[in-house]
UniProtKB/TrEMBL annotation:
InterPro entries the UniProt entry points to: Glyco_trans_2-like, Glycosyltr_2/OpgH_subfam, Nucleotide-diphossugar_trans
Gene3D superfamilies, per the entry: Spore Coat Polysaccharide Biosynthesis Protein SpsA, Chain A
Source species, domain of life: Bacteria
Membrane-related topology note: Multi-pass membrane protein
Annotated Glycosyltransferase 2-like domain residues: 335-558
Transmembrane domains' residue ranges: 12-30, 50-70, 519-538, 544-562, 574-593, 621-639, 646-664, 670-688
Name of the protein this chain belongs to: Glycosyltransferase family 2 protein
UniProt KW keywords: Glycosyltransferase, Membrane, Transferase, Transmembrane, Transmembrane helix
SUPFAM superfamilies membership: Nucleotide-diphospho-sugar transferases
């Protein structure tokens, strides 16, 4: 639960907005407009500087204003939020047939990290939970540690299912005894039996937590918040039941039945995995969106696995088909998408699905709790990156207040009916591929938010902290994540314009505040990056500076500092985040430029997954060199302004130099920067020698049978070496040459060898026979070349 904001906090949130607007307005009038009106004798360059500086200040002030606006909405929601009582939730789901399929996309993950995620999903208190691990790794070509990691990940599901058997059996036995022995009017002994059942479940969780190896902050969170948090909740229920027994009372039979069902729900989870890249009939696009789409498109179907053609295909079976399916994918009313490095608290599912099933929320497509960071990170950069994540959590909660919610892909409960509304089906390579979550950009959740809004659906953030996710532990992996976050927002803007047009004139029309917040969310990184570049590197005239610019920015930084403290961080972290954003400026700018590149060329930007393996991820050289370029230029600018007496510019440049230096040393590291820079330069200059060409040995077994199904299915385009026997090919080609030679000699009437064209022209009567001989030979020869023979 968020702490309830005080009246003073809400008043400051409003005052911060007013101060920012007034300071910006007064600055524009007293400085920018005055410079334009009173400076007709100034140079053209000065006027250009004036307008550029004014636009830059306006853009940055607008972003700060949008943060303050969203923050105000978040505080109002935290103040008004009332947690739904547990008894109401249990009563609701006693009559509900809701089911949830948890989809966990995974690619090259550390098995222990995936294990925590799977357990947090399996222990959800929900009537019907099916956990599916969507493994996107290909075992082809893997060996050594990579293959061991993949096999370990595959084995996690069986380990969890086996571990759950004991508490599930105990809970079902307790439920059976309750049904057989409990009268319509339960007595104290019935309450005692229920208390003992809860004690047994809590003890199992305590022993599980005690056996865990606490090696990092994620393991500590799993043991304390997921396992012991659930255990403490069960012990609280046990305390109440024991108190009822001691006082000679008991809950009614219906309430006791709900409590027993809760125990069964906690330990009931159907665990399975799916690997889409094993099937050629599914999308092979290397991104998380298509991993999810592939499985969602199969839900509710029965399939036969066909591999007669040399590749595995999924062929749907019709309802009247009585043959035994090889794969059955159950359907589900709700989906829970969960990143493989995230963990959920125990009542995530019940509370969010309860929200979706309220009558007033029937058009809510997605609900979530924007993830928070794990506490106790061992590295400075992970702690500061986590602090920015916690600030984003507050911002997303405020967006919901103004109906401008965006889906954040780390976790979300989704109404499957809503995904069907935005589904697009196309034929790729002869196979129908259905796309629910668009992969046109690498921020697929943001684009899907606009798609859902255009179809009349809404999204809502639940105002609690129920989900936590890992943040990158080093600068290299952080680059991959933040460059992806900065890539795609501009490409989605046309869809936002279309959504506004569609909803215009309807009760769900897009209001001004929603337009502004959504525009800022998707595009602010673009103008903020370019704006900071201007402020850092362009020598603006000192007359353009004013204390009013500082006054416009100050409420933003003060509010962020207060939010950091409310989230468990330090007030002084606001300075560390400022330096953090300076060293990330080249990364954000690269993501924005990639968006522009895709907009111009139309080529999809490759999806780059954030590395989640142990060990430091190397950074591209340009991203470790440019932060030091920013530092050097800031120092040079400060020295120049000091000599010129431009004290405002001197203070700004000096502050940037100090903050960027601190961030570069703390978050990148001098040694790591040197290593990555040298490796980057060497890698750019170094050209690996080409291995000498060796004559390829035939890998074809001459006695192997011809795979005629594969030949007829694929044709020669995908013909492989093992599909046709070499001896048969050589024999047929040899026979063709003899027949062509004989026909050629016959047509010329001499022993000289004529060409094929001469045969065709000189002897029409033999044209058909020659074509019949040559065509198969040419086709086989072409196929052999393409197959690498």
């Amino acid at each position: 639960m968020h702490s309830r904001p005080s009246g003073g906090a809400v008043i400051w949130a409003r005052a911060a907005i007013v101060i920012t607007v007034l300071a910006w307005f007064i600055y524009m009038i007293t400085t920018i407009v005055r410079m334009v009106i009173e400076g007709p004798t100034e140079s053209f360059i000065f006027h250009v500087q004036t307008w550029i500086y004014g636009l830059t200040v306006t853009a940055l002030t607008f972003s700060a204003l949008m943060y303050l606006t969203a923050r105000y909405g978040a505080l109002v929601r935290f103040r008004e939020h009332r947690r739904v009582e547990r008894a109401l939730i249990d009563e609701h789901f006693a009559e509900s047939d809701a089911d949830v399929t948890v989809l966990i996309p995974s690619y090259d993950e550390e098995p222990e990290v995936v294990r925590y995620t799977l357990w947090s999903a399996a222990l959800q208190e929900f009537p019907s939970v099916r956990v599916v691990l969507l493994i996107d790794d290909k075992d082809t070509g893997l060996e050594g540690e990579a293959l061991d990691r993949l096999n370990h990940t595959r084995g996690l599901l069986g380990e969890i299912a086996e571990a759950l058997e004991t508490p599930l059996r105990q809970s079902r036995e307790a439920m059976r005894v309750f049904e057989e022995l409990t009268p319509e009017t339960p007595g104290p002994e019935d309450a005692k039996r229920a208390a003992d059942a809860y004690a047994a479940a809590a003890t199992w969780l305590d022993e599980f937590a005690a056996a865990e190896k606490i090696e990092d902050h994620m393991a500590e969170f799993f043991a304390e918040q997921v396992l012991l948090g659930l255990s403490n909740d069960l012990r609280l229920t046990r305390l109440a039941l024991n108190a009822a027994h001691e006082q000679g009372g008991s809950p009614d039979r219906g309430r006791l039945e709900q409590l027993y069902r809760r125990l069964v729900w906690i330990f009931s989870a159907d665990m399975s995995s799916f690997e889409r890249k094993k099937y050629a009939s599914l999308s092979q696009e290397p991104n998380k969106a298509m991993n999810l789409n592939s499985y969602i498109s199969l839900m509710g179907g029965r399939y036969r696995v066909s591999d007669e053609t040399g590749v595995r295909l999924l062929e749907p079976l019709r309802d009247r088909d009585e043959s035994t399916p090889d794969l059955v994918v159950p359907d589900s009313r709700y989906l829970l998408t969960l990143d493989a490095d995230s963990q959920l608290l125990r009542d995530y599912c019940v509370r969010l699905v309860y929200l979706l099933e309220q009558p007033e929320n029937e058009r809510v497509a997605v609900t979530q709790t924007p993830y928070s960071s794990f506490r106790g990170a061992p590295t400075r950069i992970e702690r500061i990156a986590g602090a920015t994540t916690d600030l984003q959590h507050i911002q997303h909660q405020g967006l919901t207040y103004f109906n401008a919610t965006f889906w954040v892909g780390a976790n979300a409960v989704i109404r499957k009916e809503a995904l069907a509304d935005i589904a697009v089906t196309e034929t790729v390579g002869g196979f129908e591929i259905t796309t629910y979550v668009q992969d046109r950009t690498v921020i697929e959740d943001t684009e899907s938010s606009i798609d859902l809004g255009a179809h009349g659906w809404s999204l809502e953030n639940y105002p609690e902290r129920l989900s936590y996710s890992a943040t990158p532990p080093d600068f290299g992996s952080l680059i991959v994540q933040r460059r992806r976050w900065a890539n795609g927002g501009l490409l989605i803007m046309p869809k936002l314009v279309e959504m506004i047009r569609i909803r215009k004139g309807t009760p769900a029309r897009v209001r001004l505040t929603e337009k502004l917040l959504r525009t800022n969310y998707m595009s602010s990184l673009a103008w903020a990056s370019f704006g900071l570049i201007f402020l850092l590197f362009f020598p603006f005239d000192s007359r353009l500076l004013s204390p009013l610019v500082v006054a416009a920015a100050l409420p933003y930084f003060i509010s962020q500092a207060l939010d950091l403290r409310a989230s468990g961080h330090r007030l002084s972290d606001i300075f560390r985040i400022y330096g953090f954003n300076l060293v990330l400026l080249p990364v954000n700018l690269a993501g924005v430029l990639k968006s522009m590149q895709q907009g111009v060329t139309g080529e999809k930007i490759p999806f780059a997954r954030t590395p989640k393996v142990t060990g430091r991820t190397a950074s591209p050289a340009i991203y470790v060199i440019l932060p030091f370029v920013i530092i050097a230029f800031s120092v040079l600018t400060a020295y120049r302004d000091l000599n010129l007496g431009n004290w405002g510019n001197f203070i700004f440049a000096g502050f940037n130099a100090v903050m960027a230096t601190w961030a570069a040393v703390s978050y990148i590291g001098v040694r790591a920067a040197i290593v990555d820079a040298v490796l980057g330069v060497v890698g750019w200059l170094y050209v690996a020698p080409k291995p000498p060409k060796t004559k390829r040995k035939s890998l074809v077994d001459p006695d192997a049978e011809v795979n005629w199904q594969a030949i007829l299915y694929h044709g020669d385009r995908r013909l492989r070496r093992d599909l046709v026997r070499t001896s048969d090919r050589r024999r047929r080609l040899g026979g063709v040459r003899k027949e062509v030679t004989a026909v050629s000699e016959l047509s010329t009437g001499s022993g000289s060898r004529g060409t094929v064209n001469e045969v065709t022209l000189a002897s029409p009567s033999t044209q058909t026979d020659v074509a019949a001989v040559i065509a198969p030979a040419a086709e086989q020869n072409s196929a052999a070349k393409r197959a690498g023979q």
